[in-house]
Amino acid sequence: GKTTGTDARMLYWFDEKEYPVVRKPQGPNIGEQKDILQNVIDNKGKAIVNECMAVNPDYQIVFQEKLLKANVGVIVNVMEDHMETLGPTLDEVAEAFTATIPYNGKLVIMKDDYTDFFKKVADKRNTETIVVDRDKVEEDLLRKFDYIVFPDNVAIAMGVAKAIGANPDVAIEGMLNAPPDSGAVHIHYYHK
């Protein structure tokens, strides 16, 4: 899998070490994605977890339909970000994100104002929709992490686990044991 949080890194199934993604001078782009996919192929990977970093809707189409052809897609949220390219309205942002919805696959989405919109597109593509709800994530589970975790992220991860047929308990255990992103916020309590 590839993480693009604070520091882009690759994580492999055959090694617990995380490898930095060395960025080219032009920064993250579709060429970087091609290199990542080739690396996974060279290592005989059977699956990849990868973020579509493309902001331009045309690039999203290329990423999904020509490069990756994901069978499980995830749309985390529709928000005011990159409005100069995706906007100017949230409805247009949502429309742009439909480029990443797979055909004959599964789509994991958050329960929100755009759930029905994305579900209609997924249905037309013969794609099963898995709707997750941040409000269903128990506070007790969030407190088990050694760092701050947003309920949205846990809900989405559990939706992906469901999409691939993973045991929910195993998925939770994996999240609890995974090293946090280098940008994760930790809370330390000091007693006098």
Automatic annotation (TrEMBL):
GO terms for biological process: capsule polysaccharide biosynthetic process. This is Poly-gamma-glutamate synthase PgsB. GO terms for cellular component: membrane. NCBIfam families: poly_gGlu_PgsB (TIGR04012). Residues 37-156 form the Mur ligase central domain. It comes from the Bacteria. The gene is pgsB. It comes from Staphylococcus nepalensis. One of its GO terms (molecular function) is ATP binding. The lineage of its organism: Bacteria, Bacillati, Bacillota, Bacilli, Bacillales.
